[in-house]
């Protein structure tokens, strides 16, 4: 998942969270429906040390994560265009554009050094409050420095710019340059104590369950290999099986995992499983043997969805390339 550590237009952020009475009231910073066309993936890290925890003492953060990530369900949704919205009224303090929409890899990581936020907008709400919107689509930003905006105004489109591998918007909230958790603005160093809506007009609901990862393999892997990452295969030959797996946490009985994969000629499989007695961690896998003439060469993508009563809780994707060696 994305890690938007950033300095946008020279604006650096620190990591404390002060209390202030003039907090802006936030709306959703993206034009989507939570649980249907998007979901919250990561929250501000409330652990002051080297660990990680979200505001509800759950697993949905990463060490030193400094915002709230709202993720689209697919790359197709990004290509269709989803608006990033101003969360509250204010004045545009800074923008950046021109960063390509390319998923981050170890090979291209150095190319975005100092631009981890990607294409971005920063809005000043007065009294030291600002919001930051990261990973917008290249050439989509519709505002400029000095513009006045109202809550819900379009800032640009969700993209894949900066330090990310999935289309999403990263919302950072700051007071006097310091990170504030909009779900628990009173104290960033505690968790499990937040009540009410925090800074939100209507706080997005919280789900403890989620997905650690998804990946392709050429056989059903063992759980240790899934957890360590050793199971993942990124390229293979046309005559090999294709198996997609998903690693979930804190699922409840009745939750569903959907595993699907597409290739150059369209969908190759789709499989749904109801979790009757899930453990704290689990994985499921599904796949197909290669056809008689082998898989067509090219790029393949798999998606794993975790849903509860038809509501999307988490999505992970995986890519694999098939090529003759």
Helix content: under 10%
The N- and C-terminal alpha carbons lie at a distance of 30 Å
In total, how many domains does the architecture comprise?
A: 2
The average pLDDT is 91
Q: Quaternary arrangement of the chains shown? A: single chain
CATH architectural category of the largest domain? Distorted Sandwich
Largest beta-sheet characterization: 8 strands, antiparallel
How does this model look, in words?
The protein is 4% helix and 38% strand. With 325 residues, the chain is mainly beta. This is M23 family metallopeptidase. It holds the Pfam family Peptidase_M23. InterPro entries: Cell_wall_metabolism_enzyme, Dup_hybrid_motif, M23ase_b-sheet_dom.
Please provide a brief summary of the model:
It contains 2 helices and 20 strands.
Describe the protein's topology.
Layout: E1 7-8, E2 11-12, E3 38-42, E4 68-72, H1 75-80, E5 83-85, E6 90-96, E7 119-126, E8 129-136, E9 148-149, E10 154-157, E11 168-175, E12 178-180, E13 210-217, H2 223-228, E14 235-236, E15 242-249, E16 256-263, E17 266-274, E18 281-288, E19 298-308, E20 311-322
Parallel strand pairs: 14-20
Antiparallel strand pairs: 1-2, 3-4, 4-11, 5-10, 6-7, 6-9, 7-8, 8-11, 11-12, 13-15, 15-18, 16-17, 16-19, 19-20
